[in-house]
Amino acid sequence: MIRLLNERGYRFNELSILDNFIIRDIKETLCEVAADEAGLAEAKAQAPEETYDTASNGNDMLPGFEKKNFPDKLTIGTERFDCPEALFSPNTYLGRDLMVPGVVKMVQQTVAAAAIDLVRPLYNHVVLSGGTTMLPGFASRLTNDLTKTATVPVNVVAPTQRHIAAWAGASVLAMAKHFNFHWVSKEEYQQYGLDLAHHP
Question: What residue ranges define each of the domains in the chain, with the CATH number in brackets?
Answer without folding.
Answer: 1-85 (3.90.640.10), 162-198 (no CATH)
